[in-house]
Amino acid sequence: MCAHTCACKHAVLIDMEEGVVNEILQGPLRDVFDSKQLITDISGSGNNWAVGHKVFGSLYQEQILEKLRKSAEHCDCLQCFFIIHSMGGGTGSGLGTFLLKVLEDEFPEVYRFVTAVYPSNEDDVITSPYNSMLAMKELNEHADCVLPIDNQSLFDIISKIDLVVNSGKLGTTVKPKSLVTSNVGTVTKRHKKPFDAMNNIVANLLLSLTSSARFEGSLNMDLNEISMNLVPFPQLHYLVSSLTPLYTLADVNIPPRRLDQMFSDAFSKDHQLIQADPRHSLYLACALIVRGNVQISDLRRNIERLKPALQFVSWNQEGWKTSLCSVPPVGHSHSLLALANNTCVKPTFMELRERFMRLYKKKAHLHHYLQVDGMEESAFAEAVSSLSALIQEYNELDATKSMPVPDVPRLSVAM
């Protein structure tokens, strides 16, 4: 779990098991992070949201606040906080969302962006539906923007990269010591989830998102503009993200896609970081963050080309926000991150509610939560109610899809 501003030296790494943080300190990224800005415990949260939120939240609140203040003081321009955490485990879901409330209280004027990784259906944490549901209520109430990502989508993307590499099509080659290969340079047959490669997709999402803050460009976008332009209603702050190309770590040498194809890819379901198809759902707004040698005219041409196939809400037909950063990712001529406020996120939430209810109807594993001081069973009912209200808001928007778009006359300005 990481809360950071614009650079890794301003990151605070928090985990209630010390193993992962110790790996970082002993690995190739050990000099990237400030070793004084780490908070760890030994026992872990036992895959229990209540332990992470109620126990460790109270225990480490002051220590977390101290390190956050220190990081904030060293920022030249504190634009926002990024909180990166999982939804299925105890620390990510519990302490991660506790941190959101701490930030809201301590820095009320600073935007809170969350990258939340949702568990797949085959998740091996049996209590992950409880943890995810309880965390969703906190995200609904205390986040300004949430980029939901699901493990299954990340795994599917890496599997597709494997297939492309194995096929040998289009002159594809694998670089030595690649994350998608084994030590001997051959493509790994995956039986376990390739977490390093999956995490690198999320890292590249954040690199694209922060590119305007780090590099020059002809049309830079302030991070706060994302929330301002893409979140028309407070609760509907979930943005579906897609990346193209997906090989931005340069692990794989794949001939670049044509520029226009790159824009088309960003709206295809194969490039979404959750299981969703935005083309068949309703857009509230969309941001395109482009890096590399791309002109404003290229942006405009592709938006006009794609618009007829994309359905926007009637009151925001021109709901596009664009950014151009002149520096491309390493090894590429250009890249595109699309952020869509789109009703296609609804099935992810409906599936989460369904998985939760299967456990909750049986009251299975509930006692593990209720034995934690300060945890009441009413928290579960409130969490379901919060998510159901969110789903209903998306339902009401979807109900307007077939309505005709009013032909609003342009404002005439007298000269």
Distance between the amino and carboxyl termini: 56 Å
| Strand-pairing-aware structural class | alpha/beta
Q: What does the oligomeric state look like here?
A: single chain
The largest sheet is: 6 strands, mixed
Q: How much helical structure, as a percent, in the residues? A: 40-55%
Order of SSEs: EEHEHEHEHEHEHHHEEHEHEEEHHH
Question: What portion of residues belong to β-strands?
Answer: 15-25%
Please count the helical segments: 13
Q: Averaging pLDDT over every residue, what do you get? A: 86
Number of strands: 13
The geometry reads as: globular
Uncertain parts: 1-7, 180-191, 410-415
Sheet with the most strands: spatial strand order: 3-2-1-4-5-6
How large, in whole angstroms, is the Cα Rg? 22 Å
Domain Tubulin/FtsZ GTPase: 2-217
GO molecular function: GTP binding
Keywords: Cytoplasm, Cytoskeleton, GTP-binding, Microtubule, Nucleotide-binding, Phosphoprotein
Family: Belongs to the tubulin family.
Short characterization:
Helices cover 41% and strands 16% of the residues. It contains 13 helices and 13 strands.
Describe the structure.
It is found in: Cytoplasm, Cytoskeleton. This is Tubulin epsilon chain isoform X2. The chain has 415 residues and is of the alpha/beta class. Helix content is 41%, strand content 16%. The chain has helices at 19-26, 49-73, 90-106, 128-142, 151-167, 195-209, 211-214, 223-230, 259-266, 296-306, 346-360, 366-370, 378-398; strands at residues 2-4, 12-15, 38-40, 80-86, 111-118, 145-150, 173-174, 240-244, 252-253, 282-292, 311-312, 320-325, 334-342. The strands form three sheets. The chain has a six-stranded mixed beta sheet, sandwiched between helices. Strand 2, helix 1 (19-26) and strand 3 form a beta-alpha-beta unit. Residues 1-7, 180-191 and 410-415 have low confidence and may be disordered.
